[in-house]
Structures are given as structure tokens and as C-alpha cells.
């Protein structure tokens, strides 16, 4: 499969897990076919284990996941730096695709290309469940919706489900940034459910 993210509708699911487990995601098409998996990188995973012994504010911790095809071929890395200000999406050769830069925490994020030029932005609703992605001219290019899973699931686990709708055609690198928005926003806004 040359481009596993070619469908205009994708689902991003984070398996139900305890508060100290690694960040993991599945990317599926609308029919439920597994297109890619994301798992926390080993370097960051070691740091996360240490944080279970030295608790702090988890939404401020750095986290990174590597997206691969189901057979393990690397595709992209999504790397959230310490704090909530910057998340970088890179290709496996290290080339930066773009960044998500916080303008207003929890409400507005700027999408930049590898040179720092504007690609678009993400507007977030008050409940942090709907993410509208627009291009640099303000035209809507995508919408990401986080499914409400119930109070117990929301408070006690990190199980999250997102639907990603892309208003194709969307040019690269913006399209790749729209595809990775659910993971980037989950790492930035919803991983703070961890107890560490």
C-alpha cells in the first residue's frame, strides 16, 4: 500500500489501558481495516516509566509515537515536546513535515510547514471534542471528532476514539498534518488523564 492514509475518512483509536501504560493508537479506514499503528518510542517510554516513580504534571511531559504500517514499516513520528506548546510531525528519515504550535492552550493551534510558514490552524471546541482544521486562507479542510465514551472510561482510562474527516483534495504537507491531528491533540490535551 503506497499511501495508507489516502481515505477521506479515518478512525483513530487508543486502546483501553491503565494510567501508566504507553501511548498507543490504531489508525483504521471507515470500514475498520487497520492501516497503521502508533506506539510510544523506546527512548520516551523509558522516561515515562521513571515518571511513575517521580510524579509530576503529565500533560507537560514529552511524548513521542512512531506510526508504522501493520507489518512494521515506519511511516511518521509524532513528537510532543515538554509542555504543551509544540508537537512536530516527521518522516522516518528525520525530515520535518510540519508542526502544531499552541496559540491558545486547548482552543487554537497553528499548523506550520517545515520552514515555519503557515499551513493552517485548528480550532477546538470548549469540550475539546471537536477539532476544525482550516488551511492558511481559512477554508475548512478537515474535522476531527472525539467520541464520548462515558464518564468511567473518560476518567479512569486513556481509551479515546476519533473520527478524522478530510475535505479532499488537500495538498501536502497539510494533508499529512490533518491525518495526524487526532494523535497530536490526544497527546497534548487528553493524555493528561495519566496519574503521573
Automatic annotation (TrEMBL):
It holds the Pfam family Scramblase. SUPFAM superfamilies: Tubby C-terminal domain-like. This is Scramblase.
Amino acid at each position: 500500500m503506497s499511501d495508507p492514509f489516502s481515505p477521506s475518512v479515518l478512525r483513530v483509536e487508543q486502546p483501553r489501558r491503565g494510567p501508566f501504560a504507553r501511548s498507543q493508537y490504531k489508525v483504521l479506514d471507515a470500514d475498520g481495516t487497520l492501516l497503521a499503528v502508533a506506539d510510544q518510542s523506546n527512548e520516551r517510554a523509558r522516561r515515562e516509566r521513571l515518571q511513575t516513580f517521580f510524579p509530576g504534571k503529565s500533560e507537560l511531559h514529552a511524548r513521542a509515537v512512531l506510526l508504522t504500517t501493520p507489518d512494521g514499516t515506519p511511516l511518521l513520528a509524532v513528537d510532543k515536546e515538554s509542555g504543551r506548546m509544540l508537537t512536530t510531525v516527521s518522516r522516518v528519515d528525520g525530515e520535518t513535515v510540519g508542526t502544531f504550535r499552541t496559540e491558545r492552550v486547548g482552543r487554537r493551534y497553528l499548523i506550520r510547514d517545515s520552514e515555519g510558514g503557515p499551513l493552517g490552524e485548528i480550532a477546538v471546541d470548549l469540550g475539546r471534542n471537536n477539532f476544525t482544521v482550516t488551511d492558511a486562507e481559512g477554508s475548512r479542510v478537515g474535522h476531527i471528532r472525539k467520541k464520548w465514551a462515558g464518564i468511567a472510561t473518560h476518567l479512569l482510562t486513556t481509551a479515546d476514539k476519533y473520527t478524522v474527516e478530510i475535505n479532499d483534495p488537500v495538498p501536502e504537507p497539510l494533508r499529512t498534518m490533518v491525518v495526524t491531528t487526532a494523535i497530536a491533540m490526544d497527546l497534548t490535551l487528553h493524555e493528561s488523564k495519566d496519574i503521573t
